[in-house]
Amino acid sequence: MSGSSSSGRKSPMHSVFQSKKSISFTEKAKDSLKKGHAGANQSRMGVSRNLIIVPEMKMTEKVNVASTKIIQVLDKNGVDVTPRPLYCADLHAAKPNKLLSSQEGLLSSDILASYSMYQNTMNRSTMGQFTRSALGSSTVSKSSMSTTVSMAEDLEEPSYKHEKLASFTDMRVMRAAPETAITKEDLEKNIEILLTETDTLRFFDLPTVMISVESEEAEKVIHRNNKYETLCRNRAGNDLYVERMMQTFNGAPKNKDVQCDKIILEDQGVMATAWDLYDSYNALELALAAKPSAVDSSSKANALSKDRDHTLPGSATDKTSETSSLMDLESVILTKVHEDEEDHADTIMKSDKFLQDLFFMERVLMENIFQPKLAAYRQLPVLKEPEPGEPEDVLEGEKVEEVEEVKKEEEEEIEISTEQSTIPANLERLWSFSCDLTKGLNVSSLAWNKTNPDLLAVGYGHFGFKEQRRGLACCWSIKNPMWPERVYPSPYGVTAVDFSIGTPNLLAVGYYNGTIAIYNVQSSSNVPVLDSSESPQKHVGPVWQLQWIEQDRGSTGDDKREFLVSISADGRISKWVIRKGLDSHDLMRLKRTTISSNKKGDKEKKGEALISRQAPGMCFAFHPKDTNIYLVGTEEGHIHKCSCSYNEQYLETYRRHKGPVYKVTWNPFCPDTFLSCSADWGIMVWQQEHLQPFLSFYPTTHVVYDVAWSPKSSYIFAAANESRVEIWDLQMSTLDPLIVNIANPGIKFTTVLFAKHTDCLLVGDSDGQVAVYELRNMPSASDSGRGDTINALLGCKSNQPG
Amino acid sequence: MTEVEETLKRIQSHKGVIGTMVVNAEGIPIRTTLDNSTTVQYAGLLHQLTMKARSTIRDIDPQNDLTFLRIRSKKHEIMVAPDKEYLLIVIQNPCE
């Protein structure tokens, strides 16, 4: 054990050491700093030397001047890798050592002993160097002076250890109290101390940077290295390097209050909705698009900008697109109008959009009012309105009611289905198209629009010569049964109406004075688009029937051309073509026919002063399959079969009726059969090949004004005579009509028309009402619509004289 | 103009119609068949509802817009035709 290891390297230290016997830290303060360090170093080294055998490291002791040993560490190659001291005690510096001064009176041998003992029990790992040095010093317990010195050395460790020492000294102080006085013998006892090495603690690691000797920086680095070495050598006693402690002054903080006006905070929120973003981004685009679309819509509309733009009242999707374009148009219009407060209200009232909205509103109201009827018409399930219940137990009550109603409905339905065979077929009146305008007028013709199944054209005009009054042609929509969509008044009675097939917005109206007018229902103006009143070939008698015909021009390879065919009381059947105005061409002139040439021998009645050689034509019907062939019913009671190719001769003549034939109509399913009705109270079913009818009915003694085949069954047709409407079903009975609906007294039924896709019948009467009836409980036809079945019927009936 | 008046008159006289109102964007009635306080109340409430309905429709698809709004209640049905400038409100009692 290096008992004398506590001595430093330098001789003056040694001498100082020996001269002092008492513990006096202050005296040693100056000198011991340095030597303490060195001594500590040495003591440290001594410990390490003794304890650990590091195979690769040779530790040699440097013998100092007196009896001290200087440790030098050499590695296996003999290179001196002795770590240089990090800290060099300064001989001249006078460091106040608080700890040492405070401990003056406290330290005594017993304290030291206790301290050393305490050291032994210490946690070595935390104390590391310090521990070793302390322990090393404690082994020198033989001389109190050495311990004192070592103590002092230990105490004079670099500053970072002073704090630990402080704690130590405190602890030491505490511990010291209960301890008994330690005698000198105790001190000189041999105490076994075991020393172990702790893990190597790295406090600082500066990795070496290697630079090739040949590199550019090599010289600089070498120069720097040399400089550093000289510096280290010179550092020991150099004036340039002085260690001092400084105390910094912290600025004294001061609180300062400032008062300002209250900052008023307001919360503002905006919800960024998807449409808001869209609007902001597209605002410009909309403004630009408004102008061209305004131009488009105004050109399409063919009307003044303030007028209503109507498409055929039909699908709602068309409405919305029109609405949007109208809105743009409207916005463009509105921006041009100055808006005062008073003008604003007027602007709203005058705006197109407002008109549109009113239009919709009316439709919606109608829908509400007529909902069950319309639903029945459209063959939809009818909504039952829940009865407005009592305020108390409303919910439950209503639910119960509804459940009951549903049950009742089901029961009723079950009953109906079981009793279907017993309840006879009947006509149920749904509603009627009528309004103030049409009151008192006689319905003369009905026609559906070809593309919009909800649009109906009704012509009002009287039949008789003496009853002539003003006439009216109206377009009604199913969606508004209380007011017509279009009203075309005229001074003459309307006798025929028909919608065009190719251009469904054209309505042809025939008048009692023989003129034909064509209206465009898309526009809201009352002026006809075309008029035949100035045509040189206009009719001079009432136009009893109008029909638009599409004819294939197969020979020339053109598309289907459409023309209007009219028949009038002046005996002409004319074909009108729209080519820069109405152009007409006579298809046929109806000649009066004499009695059939059965009696060849008889003289023909010559010399009979005939007023006119023409026979007034009452009606015509083009063959559904072959548009070249048509039937004509005349006032004489004859039905002629004609062809467009011949305009002088009839192909066939069917004579049976005794009075004017008011209507001829082909069976839509069976191409050879047609139906006719006349003023001789008779309805007759004919077959094309036979000149005699095979069925004839004389149900009443009233004139039959109109007949029509049902679009659903080839056996069913409807007939309107003055007093009643009859539905005949040839499959059931050829003697009696299936359904008879009697008119109110004073009202004559004048026209009938079937609705195409529903089971409804429209009946016009002489009071200006068009009633819509639903055919209920019709016996389901076994083979409705099959042409061959009626042939079977014909076959078995052809024997009958008819 | 007369067409508007006619249609409005017809609507007012239809069966079951309790009241008809045309209100401008600020809630001031232009035409109404009900008394002022009721009109103002209806106008205010329906305006908010219309805004909400329109916002809903346009949130789902910004290119779409509200054209008509119908509210059916126990007692009657309120029909609103909204526009930027005005509100057309009709109250009908649909039970025959």
From TrEMBL, chain A:
Keyword check for Repeat: yes
KW Nucleotide-binding (keyword) present: no
Cellular component GO terms held in the UniProt record: axonemal dynein complex; dynein axonemal particle
Coiled coil segments of this chain: 392-420
Keywords: Cell projection, Cilium, Coiled coil, Cytoplasm, Cytoskeleton, Flagellum, Repeat, WD repeat
InterPro entries reported for this sequence: Dynein_IC (IPR050687), WD40/YVTN_repeat-like_dom_sf (IPR015943), WD40_repeat_dom_sf (IPR036322), WD40_rpt (IPR001680)
Top-level taxon in the UniProt lineage: Eukaryota
Cell compartments where the protein resides: Cytoplasm, Cytoskeleton, Flagellum axoneme; Dynein axonemal particle
SMART domains registered for this protein in UniProt: WD40
Stretches the record annotates as Disordered: 1-21, 300-324
GO BP annotation list: cilium movement
Entry-linked Pfam families: WD40
WD repeat ranges, renumbered to this chain: 697-731
UniProt-listed Gene3D superfamilies: YVTN repeat-like/Quinoprotein amine dehydrogenase (2.130.10.10)
Molecular functions per Gene Ontology: dynein heavy chain binding; dynein light chain binding
Function, in words: Plays a critical role in the assembly of axonemal dynein complex, thereby playing a role in ciliary motility.
Oligomeric and partner information: Part of the multisubunit axonemal dynein complex formed at least of two heavy chains and a number of intermediate and light chains. Associated with axonemal dynein subunits such as, DNAH2, DNAI3, and DYNLT1. Interacts with DYNLT1.
Protein name per UniProt: Dynein axonemal intermediate chain 4
UniProtKB/TrEMBL annotation, chain B:
SMART domains in alphabetical order: Robl_LC7 (SM00960)
Keywords for this protein: Cytoplasm, Cytoskeleton, Dynein, Microtubule, Motor protein, Transport
Start and end residues of each Roadblock/LAMTOR2 domain: 4-92
Keyword Nuclease on entry: no
Keyword Cytoplasm applies: yes
Localization of this protein: Cytoplasm, Cytoskeleton
GO molecular function: dynein intermediate chain binding
Pfam families: Robl_LC7
GO CC term, one of those recorded: microtubule
Assembly with partners or alone: Homodimer. The cytoplasmic dynein 1 complex consists of two catalytic heavy chains (HCs) and a number of non-catalytic subunits presented by intermediate chains (ICs), light intermediate chains (LICs) and light chains (LCs); the composition seems to vary in respect to the IC, LIC and LC composition. The heavy chain homodimer serves as a scaffold for the probable homodimeric assembly of the respective non-catalytic subunits. The ICs and LICs bind directly to the HC dimer and the LCs assemble on the IC dimer.
Function, as annotated: Acts as one of several non-catalytic accessory components of the cytoplasmic dynein 1 complex that are thought to be involved in linking dynein to cargos and to adapter proteins that regulate dynein function. Cytoplasmic dynein 1 acts as a motor for the intracellular retrograde motility of vesicles and organelles along microtubules.
Protein name: Dynein light chain roadblock
Organism field: Octodon degus (Degu)
